[in-house]
Design brief:
Layout lengths: L2 H11 L7 E6 L11 H33 L17 E6 L9 E11 L8 E12 L8 E14 L2 E21 L3 E20 L6 E19 L16 E3 L5 E11 L5 E15 L2 E13 L2 E9 L7 E7 L4 E8 L9
Antiparallel strand pairs: 1-15, 2-3, 3-4, 4-5, 5-6, 6-7, 7-8, 8-9, 8-10, 10-11, 11-12, 12-13, 13-14, 14-15
Length: 342
């Protein structure tokens, strides 16, 4: 199978999971837009697919870590090797308490079927998470270091295998109140990673590999309104507080750089030159603004993001070849979830 076809399969592998991938394409008004080849567009897309794997995996693991935190890190494994491993994830914790840090949570997947996906996605392998607490007085400022050991995601005949580390350090977790009426939660995470992806396809001896090194900052702001607030009422107390999340006002912002080696063996650098700002439009997440440069081998691209005026549920992405000054535009869906970062 040709490499370009495998990469396209890799990108569309995660369509049903709602991950950030190409939805449909359309040429820009530039009459020379078609000179930006499909291969060049794929080069730009493949690193986004890697981002999607890393962040979707982080979300899945974080949901389990949140459950552990709520149970004082007391892991309860309902299945074991003695009863037969089927659709199973085994979780162990070296210090099942709320006071001992750092602690290591190990998740071992045995043909685990992702029930959140609309297609069959099976996970195998091990993820170890080292949880550190820099300051006992700030228990929400937690660092989670994810170590992937042959962690595999399989759909149909394609398997993506992930090795390496990804560290998310929470440096800010602040609640700001506007009287009794509004609350705003601001979160800042520093993200670093050194990972390697391998793509294996049944019936093909062509195994693709990618490497990625990440230095990013993710800022999330969530908004809440007190539905019991009424102007002119006497002084409020706790019984009047009933805050409801207002996702349409939320924002998620990224800055930083990603470097690595792509499927052709070329080094690449992806740098956010204007922060990528994400918001919600009637339940759909969109990038409303942002610019990045993408340098791969000897080629250089500028990528701009904005809400598509004709299709507000989509992000309009424009890729410009900085050498030929030609461009191509296409719509994208963006399916990452805000709630995982609160």
């Amino acid at each position: 199978m040709r490499k370009s076809k495998i990469i396209l399969g890799f990108v569309f592998l995660f369509t049903a999971a709602g991950i950030f991938i190409s939805s449909c394409s359309k040429d820009s008004t530039n009459p020379a837009s078609t000179t930006l080849t499909s291969a060049q567009t794929i080069q730009v897309q493949n690193s986004d697919a890697q981002d999607a794997v890393a962040e979707q995996t982080e979300q899945d693991v974080d949901s389990k870590l949140d459950e552990l935190q709520n149970s004082n890190y007391a892991a309860s494994n309902l299945k074991s090797a003695l009863t037969g491993l089927n659709d199973t994830v085994i979780i162990t914790v070296d210090h099942p308490d709320t006071t001992t840090f750092p602690k290591v949570v190990t998740l071992t997947y045995y043909n685990y079927i992702d029930s959140n996906a609309n297609e069959s996605i099976i996970k195998n392998g091990t993820i170890s998470v080292t949880i550190s607490l820099a300051n006992a007085d700030h228990k929400r400022l937690i660092t989670r270091a994810y170590t992937f050991t042959n962690f595999a995601v399989t759909t149909d005949s394609t398997t993506v295998i992930l090795n390496g580390t990804r560290t998310v350090s929470r440096t800010k977790d602040a609640i700001m109140a506007t009287g009794w009426q509004y609350l705003r939660v601001a979160i800042t995470d520093n993200i670093t990673a050194s990972t390697k992806f391998s793509i294996v396809t049944t019936g093909s001896t062509d195994t693709l590999t990618f490497t990625r090194n990440v230095e990013k900052v993710r800022t999330a702001i969530a908004h809440f309104v007190n539905v019991n607030f009424k102007a002119g009422e006497p002084v409020y107390n706790a019984i009047h507080l009933h805050y409801r999340h207002m996702p349409s006002f939320d924002t998620l912002t990224y800055t930083g750089t990603v470097t690595g080696i792509n499927e052709k063996g070329d080094t690449y650098t992806k740098t956010i030159t204007a922060p990528l700002t994400i918001s919600a439009y009637k339940g759909s997440l969109i990038i409303v603004s942002g610019t990045m440069t993408y340098v791969v081998g000897t080629a250089s691209f500028t990528i701009t993001f904005k809400q598509d005026p004709a299709h507000p549920h989509f992000t309009l992405v424009t890729v410009t070849n900085n050498t030929t000054n030609t461009s191509k535009s296409f719509d994208r869906r963006f399916g990452r979830l805000f709630k995982r970062w609160w």
